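Subject: design request, 406 residues
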């Protein structure tokens, strides 16, 4: 039976070092406290775990495989590259692991309605899916810019019975969708659970999301030992809010010989200012509070949140999960960035060499592996989390390639 174990970096009061915490309106405190108490009880509840793990196996399709990228490895001529295949889950991304767990928690709290936010659409699809499975009302907030570039997922959410509400404020992307989802939650807190999609927000969300995504790391840890007889030299994952990365990293945090590498969206380059790289841009990325948590975010000298840019809607967010901020501060994880052009090239390379279309989010992690592998010995191992599939991004990819004359 799977368990939702505490990770060593978790500290009391929902803090990861100085990061995390609860910075929310007073009206939301009862709902957050109810969620925290329900999760505390559920963590050790055998009946809950039996239902959750049964659905992970029979509905989500876990365990997902670990694929050796043979042709990509041969082409690069260095480290051996393995792919953790979250793209093969039901709904096509890791988001379903957390959506299912939180929806079951919501049912346990007696909630009848789910609200969610989404950027790339994968979390929205996952939430709409579990709402249909568990017979719950579902509303998904999405920036109108993201609606335009993620139409296939918008249509999927509607077919699954969810109402998709377009957000026209701000930059009309993920940050603004989160704002609207929180406003809805404040208004309807008695009947509604806010199903947050990344390891963000006020405590206990970063912990809950991390724990539900930790199944990725547990499986990958066992699978790489079975395949190679040892752990990888590095685990690499893209980092928007950071849920797929923290899920993968959680099983390897205590294995100090394994490097943990998070990849942010470098957009059009750090110097351009058109990116979503909170750690790579010290002039703009500084500690502050956004959406209920203290963490690194892109802000100006007056503390105003700055606009972001990424070819990947799922990475287009100004803040990062507080546990990532802590892992970076203590030197346990390294964070780097990949540009839109590098991610697009990685997308094409994996499609050509392995017959796999990765999500543009995942393409950032893959680009970092492609960058590193040639200079590493052939016995080195890089484990890349392929967080989702790229079908949803085809229109964006084709438009970008046309713009580059490809």
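Subject: RE: design request

Done. Sequence follows.
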């Amino acid at each position: 039976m799977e368990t939702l174990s505490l990770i060593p970096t978790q500290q009391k009061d929902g803090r990861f070092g100085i990061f995390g915490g609860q910075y929310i309106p007073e009206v939301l405190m009862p709902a957050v406290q109810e969620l925290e108490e329900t999760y505390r009880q559920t963590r050790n509840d055998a009946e809950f775990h039996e239902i959750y793990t049964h659905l992970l196996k029979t509905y989500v399709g876990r365990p997902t495989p670990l694929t050796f990228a043979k042709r990509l490895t041969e082409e690069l001529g260095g480290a051996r590259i393995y792919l953790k295949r979250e793209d093969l889950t039901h709904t096509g991304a890791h988001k379903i692991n957390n959506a299912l767990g939180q929806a079951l928690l919501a049912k346990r709290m007696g909630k009848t309605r789910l609200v969610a936010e989404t950027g790339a659409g994968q979390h929205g699809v996952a939430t709409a899916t579990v709402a249909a499975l568990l017979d719950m009302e579902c509303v998904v907030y999405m920036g109108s810019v993201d609606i335009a570039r993620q139409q296939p997922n918008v249509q999927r959410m509607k077919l699954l019975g969810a109402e998709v509400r377009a957000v026209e404020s701000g930059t009309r992307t993920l940050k603004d969708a989160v704002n609207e989802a929180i406003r809805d939650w404040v208004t309807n807190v008695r009947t509604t659970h806010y199903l947050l999609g990344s390891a963000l927000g006020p405590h206990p969300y970063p912990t809950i999301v991390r724990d539900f995504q930790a199944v990725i790391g547990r499986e990958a840890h066992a699978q790489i030992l079975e395949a190679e007889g040892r752990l990888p030299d590095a685990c690499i994952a893209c980092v928007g809010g950071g849920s797929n990365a923290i899920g993968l990293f959680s099983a390897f945090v205590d294995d100090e010989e394994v490097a943990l590498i998070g990849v942010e969206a470098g957009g059009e380059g750090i110097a351009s200012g058109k990116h979503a790289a909170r750690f790579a841009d010290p002039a703009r990325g500084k500690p502050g509070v956004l959406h209920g948590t203290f963490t690194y975010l892109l802000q100006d000298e007056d503390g105003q949140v700055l606009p972001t840019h990424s070819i990947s809607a799922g990475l287009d967010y100004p803040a990062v999960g507080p546990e990532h901020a802590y892992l970076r501060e203590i030197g346990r994880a390294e964070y780097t960035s990949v540009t839109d052009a590098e991610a697009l090239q990685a997308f094409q390379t994996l499609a050509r060499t392995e017959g796999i279309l990765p999500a543009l989010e995942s393409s950032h992690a893959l680009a970092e592996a492609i960058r590193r592998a040639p200079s590493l010995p052939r016995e080195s191992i890089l484990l890349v989390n392929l967080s989702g599939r790229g079908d949803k991004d085809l229109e964006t990819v084709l438009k970008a390639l046309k713009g580059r004359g490809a």
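The domain at 61-92+214-403 is CATH 3.40.50.1100 (Rossmann fold).
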